[in-house]
Each structure stands twice: as C-alpha cells, then as structure tokens.
Design a protein that fits this description.
By secondary structure, this protein is an alpha+beta fold. The chain is built from eleven helices and nine strands. The protein has two domains: 5-143, Jelly Rolls (Sandwich), CATH 2.60.120; 149-228, Winged helix-like DNA-binding domain superfamily/Winged helix DNA-binding domain (Arc Repressor Mutant, subunit A). Strands 1, 2, 3, 4, 5 and 6 form a six-stranded antiparallel beta sheet that branches. It has a three-stranded antiparallel beta sheet with strand order 7-9-8, with no helix packed on it. A hairpin with a 5-residue loop joins β3 (49-63) and β4.
C-alpha cells in the first residue's frame, strides 16, 4: 500500500501540516501490517521512525524485575507512539505490542523533525500529548497503590470513559473495551481477579456488556461513587 497525503490526513497530528508538508512526508513513509501479539517497538532500541496507528490497537508494556508484564498505555487508531526520540534521540523506553491486528504508518524521524521546524502547531500538539502521557502514567502508577482491588478496576474503567460523558455523570460507554487480561496487565492483577470484579459489577448494575465492541455504564455517577470509595463492592 502506498502512503499518500490523504492517508496521512487520517492522523490529527499530521493534519496540522500544510498539504505540501504531508506530501513530502508521504514520499518517505511506509505502511506495515502486524498480527496480534506482534512487537511493533522494542524497549532499548534506538528508534528511527514514529509509528502512527491507522487501524487495530496497540499497548505499551514494560516488565517488572520478576518478569511480570505491566501495561502502561493504549494506542488507538489515529494516535501514535515512539515520538520521544524526536526530542532526545534516546532509546525506546517500553515495548509496544499489538492487541488487535494492526496497520501502521511509519514516518522517519528526520522527516518529522523537519516538519516540526516549519510548523509550530505540530510542536505544540506534541508537547500537549507528552504532558497528557506524563499525567496518565502518574495516575496509572497511583492506581497500583490502591489496596481495594475493586476500586482499582473501577478507576481503570473511569479513565477509559470519554471526558465529555464524565461531565454529565449520566449514561456512558467504553468503545472497544480492553479484555480482562489487558486490564489485569494494566493493574498488576490476575485475569481471574479482574473477571470476578466484573461479575460483581454486572450483578450490581454498574456495567453491562453489549457484545465485544461496547461496555455500557448505565450510571456514571454510580461508577464514580465506587471510584471515590464512597461505595464499596
């Protein structure tokens, strides 16, 4: 598949570039498909490209000293990863693996750096993205310290709800929710533990399954009460 300027327009960050800039990037970019559980980026390697996800789902993971896998963040279509090397040319800090069969667009670091220099909005967007990532990882780390396992799971679900839905505190949904195993990796729990918590959440009416593509939350106010600890399962 040939990378075109129109394809690059699918990514919000690259839409900030002028058409001529996307044209230059397209000439130097490439497309690659990955099967589930494939490794897209390897920790410790010096990156030469930024990975833009066109379809599928990725997850950033690391490993504890005893070899346990710990989930750090998800990458959804339209998003990207491997961008830290744009700023310090350092090695990739974590592994990025495929959760659902994926198609990625690889953009060379030098070409993207050149685009940054000529388009300040791209730099601003990257800075905002890095700030969000730092806040997300800080909160994710604090979740691991919660002694109440059910509260930990509820917090993770709350983080996956769209911000505009949270403000209304009415009904909500999580599109393409992570599997129990993926949540377990994020929270340093066993899959069986997460499954037991979900069974209780369903019995209490906190969540409802709507196939594999959606997890319904009838009352975000109820979910928030478990998140804040005012109610316990």
């Amino acid at each position: 598949m040939v990378v075109t300027p129109e394809l690059l327009s699918a990514f919000p960050l690259l839409r900030l570039l002028p058409a001529s800039g996307r044209g230059l990037l397209a000439q130097q970019s490439s497309v690659e498909r990955f099967a589930r559980r494939a490794v897209v980026l390897k920790a410790g390697e010096r990156g030469e490209r930024v990975c833009f996800l066109f379809e599928g789902r990725l997850q950033g993971v690391d490993f504890t000293v005893d070899g346990r896998e710990v989930g750090l963040f998800f990458v959804e279509p339209g998003d990207f990863c491997g961008e830290l090397a744009l700023f310090d040319s350092g090695p990739q800090p974590e592994f990025v693996i495929v959760l659902a069969p994926a198609m990625v667009v690889w953009v060379p670091l030098p070409a993207l750096r050149d685009a940054m220099e000529t388009c300040p909005p791209v730099v601003t967007s990257l800075g905002e993205r890095l700030a969000r990532r730092v806040r997300q990882l800080t909160l994710q780390r604090s979740l691991l310290g919660l002694p109440n396992i059910a509260q930990r799971v509820c917090w993770q679900l709350w983080l996956l709800v769209e911000e505009q839905e949270k403000s209304a505190l009415q009904q909500g949904q999580i599109r393409n929710p992570p599997t129990h195993m993926e949540i377990a990796i994020m929270l340093n729990l066993s899959r069986e533990t997460v499954t037991r918590v979900f069974q209780t959440l369903q019995q209490e009416g906190v969540v409802q399954r709507d196939g594999a593509a959606r997890l319904l939350i009838p009352s975000l106010a109820l979910l928030k009460s478990y998140v804040e600890g005012s109610k316990e399962l």
